[in-house]
Amino acid sequence: MIGRLIKYGVMFVVLVLMQVLVLNQVQLSGYINPFIYVLFIMLLPVSTPRYLLLILGFLIGFVVDIFSNSLGIHAAATVFIAFVRPFVISSISTREEDRNEYPGLRQNKFSWFLSYTAIMVLLHHFVLFYLEYFTFSHFFLTFLRVLLSSVFSIFIIVLSQFIIFRE
Amino acid sequence: MRSLIRYLLKNHAFVLFVLLEGFALTMVFNYNSFQKATYLNSASRLTGTVYNMFHSVTGYFGLAKINRELAGENARLRSLLENQPGYFLSPDSTSSTQLQNDSVFRFITAEVINNSVNRPLNYLTLNKGRKQGIKPDMGIISNRGIVGVVGQVSESYAMGLSVLNQRWSVSAKVKKNGYYGSLMWNGTDYRYATLAEIPLHVDVAIGDTVVTSGYSSIFPEGILVGTISDFTRPDGENYYAIKVKLFVDFKSISHVEVVENTDRQEIDELDKTLKNDRQAN
């Protein structure tokens, strides 16, 4: 229990710092801004109580918000994906035996993890970017930003699973 | 009542979701009242310290470029000084500069420890705060031109809105004829801003310089902004749509100066009395 607490605590801090110190400074062409702290919500054990999932989701979004002066925007996006996570997991896991307690890459098939990452990241980025721009006058431009940033986020998240977040 | 409680307990996830999402959205749409809380933005002690520590490492990478820029600016300032007849350089390097006859501006140097260019609302964090005399609503400039304005200040850090922030605009004028309008950013390209409210009869050309107007008490008059790169006459409007290429490269900004107008309080008081008069009539 304590070990798990420390593991997820370290993951929280590392992901937030990675996000605000490295990835928020990567400014490719002004369109792409990957957000990988989504990984924290994605990797929580499947049996995590839903209220805890929501509270942790709010917390990580709120901390990123404070660092990037965008109060509420990240929190709204992370609470949303924390809420839909159980539905996403149950909808992409076809058979009962597919389901693993840990939704990481090592414990699951590559195709399962890829579609899980893609759905979660796209949902998060949609809420985030449309809240941030909050105007439909740039509808297609924002859409482009969502897609490009999502591709980068998905790529980095999958890559990170190969490199660091292995148990 | 009991069935209501049972319902809430059964759907506690949904209820909590609605509560948290509602709270987050309230913060988004009431940004003003929440942004005023200095502990909830990048100027707070925790975030400022994290950015500062990180910057103390990464800051070294840009030193060669910064040195080059400083040397260039020294040369420019010296040539300005030499060409000013009757101006003597006092041995005491006082930070007060008499830029205009009627108002005194004071400059405080600071380093940018966090900055963004690709959000619709871009902010920067400076490594100086209240202790060094920085107050909200002071202007931020660099050696190439205007950068932004200070928003929130904590004990030793400050958060500023850059020109690339759609919640802020600044009064700017075309240098050659003095017609002024407001400079805004449209949220797409960090190299360009838009100058609005220049009437159609004014003579503008591509390549004209745009400088600050000095009508606000934030910036001195004549701080560089950019050059006109394109302009159109929108149908049915009396004003040009002017695209301005900014002098400051917001992607590589490192050292800035915070401008304090020491007459600021007086100007603001005067403005207030004028406003009150208008309301009384």
From TrEMBL, chain A:
Q: Does the keyword ATP-binding apply?
A: no
Give the location in the cell. Cell membrane
Q: Name one GO cellular component term.
A: plasma membrane
**Primary subcellular site in the record, as a coarse category:** membrane
This protein's UniProt keywords: Cell membrane, Cell shape, Membrane, Transmembrane, Transmembrane helix
Q: Which InterPro entries does this entry report, sorted A to Z?
A: Cell_shape_determining_MreD (IPR007227)
Which segments cross the bilayer?
6-23, 35-64, 70-89, 110-131, 143-165
**Signal sequence: where?**
none
Is Transmembrane found in the keyword set? yes
Query: What biological-process GO terms show up in the record?
Result: regulation of cell shape
* Membrane topology of this protein: Multi-pass membrane protein
Q: Which family does it belong to?
A: Belongs to the MreD family.
What NCBIfam families has UniProt attached to this entry?
A: shape_MreD
Protein's UniProt name? Rod shape-determining protein MreD
What organism, scientifically named, is this protein from? Mariniphaga anaerophila
TrEMBL record, chain B:
Please list the GO biological process terms of this entry. regulation of cell shape
Q: Which residues cross the membrane?
A: 12-31
InterPro entries per the record? Cell/Rod_1, Cell/Rod_MreC_2, MreC, MreC_beta-barrel_core
Q: Which domain of life is it from?
A: Bacteria
Which parts of the sequence belong to the Rod shape-determining protein MreC beta-barrel core domain? Answer: 112-260
Q: Which GO terms describe its cellular component?
A: plasma membrane
Alphabetically sorted, this entry's keywords are: Cell shape, Membrane, Transmembrane, Transmembrane helix
Q: Which family does it belong to?
A: Belongs to the MreC family.
Q: What is this protein called?
A: Cell shape-determining protein MreC
From the broadest rank down, the organism's phylogenetic lineage runs: Bacteria, Pseudomonadati, Bacteroidota, Bacteroidia, Marinilabiliales
